[in-house]
Amino acid sequence: MKILDVCCGSRMFWFNKQEKHTTYMDIRNEILYYKDRHLKRKVEIRPDVIGDFRKIPFSDSSFDLVVFDPPHLIHAGANSWLVKKYGKLNKDTWKQDLKQGFEECMRVLKGNGVLLFKWNEEQIKTKEVFEVFGQQPILGDKRSKTRWSVFIK
Q1: For 107-142, what is each residue's pLDDT tens digit?
Q2: Max CA distance (Å), the chain
Q3: Nearest-10 Cα torsion for 136, 140, 142, 145
Q4: Which residues contact 51 (CB under 8 A, 6 or more apart)?
Q5: Gyration radius from the chain CA atoms
Q6: Is the full-model pTM beyond 0.90?
Q7: Are residues 135 and 143 in contact, defined by beta-carbon separation less than 8 angstroms?
Q8: Alpha-carbon distance 129 to 135, whole Å?
Q9: What share of the chain is helix, strand, coil (3-state, %, to 5)?
Q10: Per-residue pLDDT tens for 7-20?
């Protein structure tokens, strides 16, 4: 099994942050410090591969599973701890960026591969994102603000 996490960030939702089947990719490679309420926090973004989800640096049909958890914010200040933690989409190009990212994820998936998509609809509704993708997932969470959805190739 070969897995690619294209926006791994600090690998927050991974139980095993060094999962042996997984290649962790992110556009950032940095350690960030921020203040969250009265606490000082540290976020380490240490991908195996530095890359942009809009142009994934792997060959077609390379992975069995791709995890796509892109930034979900378009309205937040540059010094926001949420932006430091999760990143931020461009408010003018987010639709094109997500569409290109989705297409890249599907490109690197093997036939019958699975794309696991995570989205938080604080600022953009999941329905809008699926419209941008041009397809619906086969299953997923429909109740919470943070949604997990499964697409297949």
Answers
A1: 999 999 999 999 999 999 999 999 999 999 999 998
A2: 48
A3: -100
A4: 6, 25, 26, 27, 57
A5: 15
A6: yes
A7: no
A8: 10
A9: 20, 35, 45
A10: 999 999 999 999 99
